Amino acid sequence: MKKFNILLLAFILTSTIAISQTYYYGIKGGLGLNMQKWNTFQRELLFTPLIDLMVESYDEMPSRLYAQLGFHTRGSAVRGFGFTAFNAYRFNNIALEIGGKRMITNDKKYNGYYMLGLRAEYNISTNLNSTNTNSLYNLVSDEFVNKFIYGASVGGGFEYEFSENKIIFVELSFNPDLAIQYEQLESYTYTDINGIKHSIRPQEVRNFSLELKVGYKFMQGYIDD
User: For the whole model, what pTM was predicted?
Assistant: First the structure.
């Protein structure tokens, strides 16, 4: 819980600094396409919703700074017969991202941009202990989850200024983790309902996600009734 409080404090400090300057505030949400590689069984894609609160500097120059805090579910799936028959492995994370953004154009109705950021995430819950433990494919446990992870984000998008100082935008980002989300020891064993003991190979699982978001932001000090 201490690391999560540090992440929250960092975002609050960023927002506090922004109050005395010209900044954008906003919200964005969308869909994440999540991938993981496990040693025990081939995992497939997991689609999950996501949401972020954001703050972004404003300058006539093309380079800007941004920070965002949100809820992101990482994970993967094991599908059986039929597209909807699957077990989902969900890691529900609070994600803080801080980075830089560069506008390709800055004086038109439609403006493109690209960005690069660093992420720190804190895991608040999973569904691992509720999966079907009667199958060797699902031998996972919360005790091997790393609560604190970090990674990078790179992406870009387009903005549309639909009224004075109010902007909607579409954004696509690639988000590889540099830290391990799930680390299962080689000595871990499992005894099934028949009393048979199984040895499980070690696991080092990292997250990778592709995120598509739609957002809305407004400039501080320019809120119409």
Answer: 0.80
